[in-house]
């Protein structure tokens, strides 16, 4: 303890002040409860079928539950194959403390393969390109500072609503036609919703239609390529970065596949960005600032930022939005009385969307596409009496916590009213710690596409409910985690036209 104490004193001045009060009680990181580890392989043996103490788990919710029940409110998982160790904190006070003190330049690791590919394999092609999801430190801060005013502008809704309504109308028509083929819809509803989410985010990012609704969208169509690449990147990143893989030492089959997907996704998005740029130049005259598309505004700030952000919107804005939309439609289908309440709100003389917004919040509480938030410590912390070193991935298991009765009354039930009732009502959402439900993340590094996503979803759901009654005729929907959450097929939705 003496050596540890001395090291701490000299290494980190800021943790000294907190250590003074913990001095005799601060326990080392190695004593945090958690799964035992093998050299190099870490705790991987615990996840083996039959013999593993935890076994394979279909989703992060299940894993978080097992570990919480086994070890309590602070759990350590050593990294596999030299990956950083992870620390799951179940007490919101604890991750609140770490997340807040990691601002204003928080580190969020992820997409190691993409970083490796850009920094080592294609260094010259990506010189000066710093995407938000993958960059860190000042590179991240500089990009974020440049794009924040463009993407978080309140006028966004006014500017893009007409275009998104046009796309939503086409989608409603498409669902009406496709619903006749129940088999197709059961297997492909997610694909159809993904076409809508890509078409929508592209019209915002590029000011152009991609043509995702073309019949039998061929595999060679650039929009189809973007959809397939986004899926491959998520699935392969999961296999390479969260399961045992030798990709850091040899180019495995999956590593070669992901490199191909990175190349194709980048080249395709750059093709669309260049097309948008061409159209802007051909227009030959300037338009008022508020009428400019996002890509036009970004291009006028900095070309590399425009390429990075345009590319990222066409990657991060597809499956996130389709998962969230399917999650909301599922609850509306399961709760016809809630659906009817939204319909009343939509058809009222002064539609406020207040209830619809509450439904989206409630659905995100129960079905978050990102089941847990993550920050990598950039310095030492003392949490719950333990010393947490620099370089540890601190996980907040938000989806799991959001479904516990100790945080929300009747936590597993879909009750949109909890977001609307007065403070005096026991259901009032404000009684819960504000860090429990964070579907769009936290602080300065939270999701930059939040407004865009909410706007797209609200517009589509409004159009759908105006035209159709939605039901679900099958067993409960299942979630699988592969880096992000996704829904397992089949989809048992039924859409019935309201005449
Ligand atoms: C309902 C849909 C969406 C959900 C639930 C969602 C959720 C998230 C979450 C949880 C994060 C991590 C935040 C953190 O670490 O604190 C994130 C980051 C991000 N999201 Fe989203 N997202 C959605 C839609 C979108 C869309 C439509 C776009 C693009 C237009 C987008 C672009 C991004 C980007 C670029 C980041 C990285 C931000 C940064 O590191 O500065 N997201 N999102």
From TrEMBL:
Q: Which UniProt keywords apply?
A: Heme, Iron, Metal-binding, Monooxygenase, Oxidoreductase
What is a single molecular function from GO for this protein?
iron ion binding
Q: Which residues bind heme?
A: 447
Q: Which Gene3D superfamilies match?
A: Cytochrome P450
**PROSITE patterns membership:** CYTOCHROME_P450
Name the cofactor(s) required for activity, per the record: heme
CDD domains xrefs = CYP24A1-like
- Do you know which PANTHER family this protein is assigned to? CYTOCHROME P450
Q: Which family does it belong to?
A: Belongs to the cytochrome P450 family.
Name of the featured protein: Cytochrome P450 333A3
What organism is the protein native to?
A: Danaus plexippus plexippus
């Amino acid at each position: 303890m003496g050596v540890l104490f001395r090291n701490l004193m000299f290494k980190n001045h800021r943790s000294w002040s907190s250590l003074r009060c913990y001095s005799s009680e601060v326990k080392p990181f190695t004593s945090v409860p958690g799964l035992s580890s093998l050299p190099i392989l870490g705790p991987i043996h615990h996840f083996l079928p039959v013999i593993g103490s935890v076994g394979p788990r279909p989703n992060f919710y299940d894993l978080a539950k097992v570990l919480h029940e086994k070890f309590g409110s602070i759990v350590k998982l050593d990294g596999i194959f030299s990956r950083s160790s992870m620390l799951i904190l179940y007490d919101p006070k604890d991750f609140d403390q770490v997340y807040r003190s990691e601002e204003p330049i928080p580190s969020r690791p992820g997409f190691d393969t993409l970083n490796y590919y850009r920094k080592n394999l294609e260094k010259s092609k990506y010189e000066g390109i710093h995407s938000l999801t993958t960059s860190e430190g000042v590179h991240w801060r500089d990009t974020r500072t440049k794009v924040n005013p463009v993407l978080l502008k309140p006028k966004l809704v006014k500017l893009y609503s007409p275009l998104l309504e046009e796309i939503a109308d086409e989608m409603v028509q498409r669902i009406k036609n496709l619903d006749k083929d129940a088999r197709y819809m059961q297997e492909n509803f997610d694909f159809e919703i993904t076409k809508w989410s890509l078409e929508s985010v592209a019209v915002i990012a590029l000011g152009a239609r991609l043509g995702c609704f073309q019949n039998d969208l061929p595999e060679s169509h650039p929009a189809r390529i973007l959809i397939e690449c986004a899926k491959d990147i998520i699935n392969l990143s999961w296999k390479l970065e969260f399961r045992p893989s030798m990709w850091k030492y040899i180019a495995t089959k999956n590593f070669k596949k992901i490199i191909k997907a990175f190349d194709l996704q980048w080249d395709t998005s750059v093709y669309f960005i260049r097309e948008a740029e061409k159209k802007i130049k051909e227009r030959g005259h300037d338009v008022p600032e508020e009428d400019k598309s996002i890509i036009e505004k970004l291009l006028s700030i900095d070309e590399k930022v425009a390429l990075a952000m345009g590319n990222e919107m066409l990657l991060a804005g597809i499956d996130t939005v389709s998962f969230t939309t399917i999650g909301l439609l599922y609850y509306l289908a399961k709760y016809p009385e809630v659906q009817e309440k939204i319909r009343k709100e939509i058809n009222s003389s002064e539609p406020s969307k207040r209830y619809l917004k509450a439904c989206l919040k409630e659905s995100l509480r129960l079905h978050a596409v990102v089941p847990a938030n993550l920050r990598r410590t950039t310095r030492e912390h003392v949490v719950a009496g333990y010393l947490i070193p620099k370089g540890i991935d601190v996980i907040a298991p938000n989806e799991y916590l959001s479904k516990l009765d100790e945080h929300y009354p009747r936590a597993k039930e879909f009750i949109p009213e909890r977001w609307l009732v007065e403070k005096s009502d026991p259901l009032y959402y404000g009684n819960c710690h504000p860090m429990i439900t964070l579907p769009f993340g936290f602080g300065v590094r939270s999701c930059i596409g939040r407004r865009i996503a909410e706007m797209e979803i609200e517009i589509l759901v409004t159009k759908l409910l105006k035209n159709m009654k939605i039901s679900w005729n099958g067993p409960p929907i299942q979630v699988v985690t592969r880096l992000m959450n996704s829904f397992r097929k089949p989809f048992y939705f039924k859409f019935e036209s309201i005449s």
